[in-house]
Design goal:
Keywords: Membrane, Transmembrane, Transmembrane helix. The protein has helices at about 1-30, 40-70, 70-75, 85-100, 110-120, 200-205; strands at about 130-140, 145-155, 165-175, 185-190, 195, 205-210, 220-230, 235-245, 250-255, 260-270, 275-280, 290-295, 300-305, 310-320. With about 325 residues, the chain is an alpha+beta fold. The protein folds into 2 domains: about 1-85; about 130-320, Immunoglobulin-like, CATH 2.60.40. A hairpin with a 3-residue loop joins strand 1 (about 130-140) and strand 2. Helix 1 packs antiparallel against helix 2 (about 40-70).
């Protein structure tokens, strides 16, 4: 802002001086007796030019004096910040942060605060989840476990530009005896703002069997995605069914964007099993904000504040211990 003020003031001063000198020049070299004298009309024009020049110089000095004597409080009160460029605002922010947090501390530019601020600021204009709700119904059969997973979440775009969000589908699965690979992970429903795309997403799903080359138990890879354009907000509704072996007793739910309202409901149909869970990421460090509501055949877990990308919960099922009489 200071640079702009200096440039404008210099231009105004030069222009005002030029106008005054030009009017004086014409009066000096073209007096009333001169052949080029324009009469009263010419005098009016010269007077107007001289007045404009004086006004420019006067306003320049007034603005300079006002700038130097005006207090910081007045500057802020009267939209001082709105007149700054983006770079100037960042420089001002850095100076304020230095005074607030590091005046009495010796911190380098690679400190934790700068890292956190850099990572967080990158999320401010990106889409976030206004709500993210997951409901899992778990059925334990004789040979395998079936889970019906319903996710419904609302994406909000805080920026003025339309953005494209990649909705991922995927898992690393184990082989299950007597179950074909394409039955292990099935998308039963996928809708964007109530428009059904279930058929289209299933045509794009990729299931690869790497069990011969891979000693890892989770050797079946499932992957696909769907691009969603979000102008202001968008609601995603999906239902997925998975089949896992009886020894695959953990379920994890992790978000990929900042989320304002998060909840998970896990329903278990077999009373001979019990549930345990733990949170991770930012949620794990703020257990006082976690809401836990036990249910007759399950549990509901929620978080009453913002959570960050990578946060979530892991839910495990274990066989109930038999009571000895």
């Amino acid at each position: 802002m200071v640079k702009r003020l200096r440039i404008i003031s210099l231009i105004s001063l030069i222009l005002g001086t030029t106008l005054i000198m030009s009017a004086s020049y014409f009066e000096l070299f073209f007096p009333p007796k001169n052949a080029f004298y324009l009469g009263i009309f010419g005098d009016i024009i010269l007077t107007a030019i001289r007045s404009v020049g004086v006004s420019l110089i006067t306003s320049t000095f007034i603005n300079l004096i006002k700038f130097w004597v005006e207090s910081t409080e007045t500057l802020v009160k009267y939209d001082f910040v709105n007149r700054l460029t983006k770079k100037e605002m960042k420089d001002l922010k850095a100076k304020i942060e230095t005074e607030l947090y590091f005046r009495d501390n010796d911190h380098d530019k690679d400190n934790f605060y700068n890292f956190f601020e850099r990572e967080l600021s990158s999320l401010l204009n990106e889409c976030y989840y206004k709500s993210y709700r997951t409901r899992i119904e778990c059925h334990i059969g004789e040979n395998y476990i079936t889970k019906t997973i319903r996710k419904k979440f609302e994406i909000v775009n805080p920026s003025k530009k339309e953005c494209t969000i990649k909705i991922p589908f995927g898992a690393e699965m184990q082989k299950v005896r007597q179950v074909e690979n394409n039955k292990l992970y099935q998308i039963k429903k996928f809708a964007v703002d109530s428009v059904d795309f279930t058929k289209e997403i299933n045509e794009r799903i990729d299931i690869s069997d790497n069990c011969l080359e891979n000693s890892d138990a989770y050797c079946i890879k499932v992957h696909t995605f769907w691009d969603v354009k979000v102008k202001k907000k968008c609601t995603i509704d999906m239902v997925i069914e998975t089949i896992v072996p009886l020894n695959d007793v953990c379920f994890s739910n992790k978000i990929t964007r900042p989320c304002k309202e998060y909840s998970v409901i896990f329903i278990l149909n077999d009373p001979s099993y019990q549930l345990s869970w733990h949170s991770f990421g930012f949620m794990g460090n703020h257990k006082d904000r976690i809401i836990e509501e036990p249910m007759d055949n399950g549990i509901e877990i929620g978080f009453k504040d913002w959570i960050l990308p990578g946060d979530g919960v892991v839910i495990s099922i274990t066989k109930c211990e038999k009571k000895h009489v």
